[in-house]
């Protein structure tokens, strides 16, 4: 049994949530960012650990990719976004953000562990971990070494959803970590003229899968071109202000599922 790591001295983190997806490209980083914004809007102190080392996208979504996290020799100081969300990512530590990370699994896993143990997170209500996609070596090491309180699984609507979500769920079970629920991303498109919801990829599959696995669906997020363009421009927090009601409702659902933050 691998010993769980502790965050560095002077750091207090109330809830650690790992955001997982069974496969890449379902919008896990976008959803992690939206969760952070929704919780920050509610007044929580939020941090994001970008553990998707080979495809880190959190700094760009928050527009902090030109900043650098610095190390004072003892700890790494995370970057802060405009609304005060603390972010650490390999992209904030390397000279060139477009340099490919050609590292083997153990080195990546070691770096992610350091993001937990060597970063001066300070006082956080919630730390969100944007996990690498899938259920391989790195997610496994993170789950074994970081004291994660629970998991949010992000999925997109498609035929293979059951199989893909099941992998994440089984991994969580193996690690004896609770699953807070599933967020279905790109679930539907809402017509801007008539407000009708169109379930382009089919409706109801996620409920079926969730029921079978005895877990909850936390939220179904729409395909939203405005969300995409603001994320591309590094302005996800502007989206959080523009769509305050929507984000508040999402924040409430997360808060509810994680059993409050004390
Ligand atoms: N709700 C949404 N509506 C429309 N497009 C979206 C939505 N969510 C995410 N996207 C787009 O889908 C693409 C993938 O999103 P993202 O990078 O968040 O996925 P990911 O699962 O983290 O990917 P990876 O596994 O490669 O890290 C991005 O171009 C993003 O803008």
Automatic annotation (TrEMBL):
<feature type="binding site">
    <location>
        <begin position="22"/>
        <end position="29"/>
    </location>
    <ligand>
        <name>ATP</name>
    </ligand>
</feature>
<keyword id="KW-0411">Iron-sulfur</keyword>
<dbReference type="InterPro" id="IPR019591">
    <property type="entry name" value="Mrp/NBP35_ATP-bd"/>
</dbReference>
<keyword id="KW-0067">ATP-binding</keyword>
<dbReference type="GO" id="GO:0005524">
    <property type="term" value="F:ATP binding"/>
</dbReference>
<comment type="function">
    <text>Binds and transfers iron-sulfur (Fe-S) clusters to target apoproteins. Can hydrolyze ATP.</text>
</comment>
<keyword id="KW-0408">Iron</keyword>
<keyword id="KW-0378">Hydrolase</keyword>
<dbReference type="InterPro" id="IPR033756">
    <property type="entry name" value="YlxH/NBP35"/>
</dbReference>
<keyword id="KW-0479">Metal-binding</keyword>
<protein>
    <recommendedName>
        <fullName>Iron-sulfur cluster carrier protein</fullName>
    </recommendedName>
</protein>
<comment type="subunit">
    <text>Homodimer.</text>
</comment>
<dbReference type="InterPro" id="IPR044304">
    <property type="entry name" value="NUBPL-like"/>
</dbReference>
<dbReference type="Pfam" id="PF10609">
    <property type="entry name" value="ParA"/>
</dbReference>
<keyword id="KW-0547">Nucleotide-binding</keyword>
<comment type="similarity">
    <text>Belongs to the Mrp/NBP35 ATP-binding proteins family.</text>
</comment>
<dbReference type="InterPro" id="IPR000808">
    <property type="entry name" value="Mrp-like_CS"/>
</dbReference>
């Amino acid at each position: 049994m691998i010993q769980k790591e502790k965050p560095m001295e002077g750091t207090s983190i109330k809830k650690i949530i790992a955001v997982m997806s069974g496969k890449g490209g379902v919008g896990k980083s976008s959803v992690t960012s939206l969760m952070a914004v929704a919780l920050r809007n509610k007044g929580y102190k939020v941090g994001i650990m970008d553990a998707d080392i080979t495809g880190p996208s959190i700094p760009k979504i928050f527009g902090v990719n030109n900043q650098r996290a610095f190390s004072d020799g003892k700890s790494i100081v995370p970057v802060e976004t405009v609304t005060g969300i603390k972010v650490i990512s390999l992209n904030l530590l390397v000279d060139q953000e477009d340099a490919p990370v050609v590292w083997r699994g153990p080195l990546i896993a070691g770096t992610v562990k350091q993001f937990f143990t060597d970063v001066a997170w300070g006082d956080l209500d919630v730390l969100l971990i944007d996990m690498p996609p899938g259920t391989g070596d790195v997610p496994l090491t993170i789950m074994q070494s970081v004291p994660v309180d629970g998991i949010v699984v992000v999925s997109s609507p498609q035929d293979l959803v059951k199989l893909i979500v099941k992998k994440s769920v089984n991994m969580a079970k193996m690690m004896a970590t609770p699953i807070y629920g599933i967020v279905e991303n790109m679930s539907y498109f809402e017509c801007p003229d008539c407000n009708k919801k169109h379930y382009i990829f089919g409706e109801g599959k996620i409920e079926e899968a969730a029921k079978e696995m005895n877990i909850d669906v936390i939220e179904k997020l729409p395909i939203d071109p405005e969300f995409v363009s603001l994320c591309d421009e590094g302005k996800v927090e502007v989206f959080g202000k523009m769509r305050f009601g929507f984000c508040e409702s999402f924040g409430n659902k997360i808060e509810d599922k994680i059993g409050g933050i004390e």
